[in-house]
Amino acid sequence: MARVYNFSAGPAAMPVSVLQEAQREFLDYASSGMSVLEMSHRSAAYQEVIDAAENNLRSLVGIPDSYGVLFLQGGATLQFAAIPMNLMAAGRAGYIVSGHFAESAWLEAEKYGVAECLASSAETHFDRIPALGTIEAKSAGLDYTYICQNNTIFGTMYHELPRTGTTPLVADVSSCFLSLPLNCERYGLFYAGAQKNAGPAGVTVICVRRDLVEFGPVSPYCPTYLDFSKQLAKGSMLNTPNTFGIYLCSKVFEWVQAQGGLEAMGQYNQAKADTLYGALDDSDFYRGTAQRDSRSIANVCFRTPTPELDAAFCQEAAGQGLMGLKGHRLVGGIRASIYNAVTPEAVDALAGFMKSFELAHGSRSF
Ligand SMILES: *Cc1c(COP(=O)(O)O)cnc(C)c1O
């Protein structure tokens, strides 16, 4: 079996042992005589699957009962609309615009109320997390303050969360979810598209403080599907959920726990990130695109001296089994996504390739 080193930003590498376990159970799940794919979501066997997924996540992250957990569809993008429709009670929210996905969420929220941009790093091409000093004052009176905690496209991450006073903090954690510890009680709501680090595409994990949604959505036009209070009451099964996706997520939660949990995962990921950022800092050929104090633990973005060499880099790397390194189409360059299932061995192979590529192409002056 020849598996490549997969640095894709999402859908992304999954733990091999999880894939193997799913393969073993594929035709006959827990002696049910059928695949999870074929099972009614109303069956007792499936109820056990989704309950286990929630319980595994609660114990892994440390989610108290005062927070509800949902497994919905529509990706992170549908949450850009669901969040204002459920949480904009007074019609006013604040957005910190630190990249493309934060900006998209902000623009979407403007359809449902007043969405203020509280801070932005657009002027410096999203190479950093904006300064957070004024956020607490600006958050006063808002329904929520919104952040995108790890900016997948630009390779930046919050190393501390903004203070928001009593205003709930809402976070898109899609690309750093389960990569490092998360203090649930700092958030009013956090959510993640699973395909970065928690499972396959088609599942979005949402964790919300119950008191924020107990009276139902604010918008009378909120689709029933996106009504968090109804979905919580129905255990994410108001309609047919992504049954197989949730089953795989549950296995990933178990796997992360078996690796030592989020604290251990954070150290493991920091060591991988240090390898790559070290390689960038040691070189005059490569240039990291994120400011040092904003560097992401999950997405390492860099460039060679020219776009042509960036393309050659990705092509030659693919020839050596290092896949998924092309930067997002909005920014170009090179991006290595080093989520939980990407091994130190893969990262070392990439660092080695970077050296040899520089030796071959770096002697010319640019
Ligand atoms: C990938 C990503 C999204 C978009 O996710 P979809 O599930 O494709 O809608 C949004 N936010 C962040 C931080 C992401 O990494």
TrEMBL record:
Enzyme class: transferase
Pathways involved: Cofactor biosynthesis; pyridoxine 5'-phosphate biosynthesis; pyridoxine 5'-phosphate from D-erythrose 4-phosphate: step 3/5; Amino-acid biosynthesis; L-serine biosynthesis; L-serine from 3-phospho-D-glycerate: step 2/3
Binding site for L-glutamate: R42
Binding site for pyridoxal 5'-phosphate: A76, T77, F101, T152, D172, Q195, N239, T240
A Pfam family recorded for this sequence: Aminotran_5
EC number(s) stated in the UniProt entry for this protein: 2.6.1.52
Catalytic activity from the UniProt record: O-phospho-L-serine + 2-oxoglutarate = 3-phosphooxypyruvate + L-glutamate; 4-(phosphooxy)-L-threonine + 2-oxoglutarate = (R)-3-hydroxy-2-oxo-4-phosphooxybutanoate + L-glutamate
Residues with the N6-(pyridoxal phosphate)lysine modification: K196
Cofactor(s) needed for function: pyridoxal 5'-phosphate
GO CC terms of this entry: cytoplasm
GO MF term list: O-phospho-L-serine:2-oxoglutarate aminotransferase activity; pyridoxal phosphate binding
Bound cofactor: record note: Binds 1 pyridoxal phosphate per subunit.
Assigned keywords, A-Z: Amino-acid biosynthesis, Aminotransferase, Cytoplasm, Pyridoxal phosphate, Pyridoxine biosynthesis, Serine biosynthesis, Transferase
GO biological process terms on file: L-serine biosynthetic process; pyridoxine biosynthetic process
Residue intervals of the Aminotransferase class V domain: 4-350
Domain of life where this protein originates: Bacteria
Recorded family membership: Belongs to the class-V pyridoxal-phosphate-dependent aminotransferase family. SerC subfamily.
Assembly notes: Homodimer.
Described function: Catalyzes the reversible conversion of 3-phosphohydroxypyruvate to phosphoserine and of 3-hydroxy-2-oxo-4-phosphonooxybutanoate to phosphohydroxythreonine.
Protein name per UniProt: Phosphoserine aminotransferase
Organism name: Muricaecibacterium torontonense
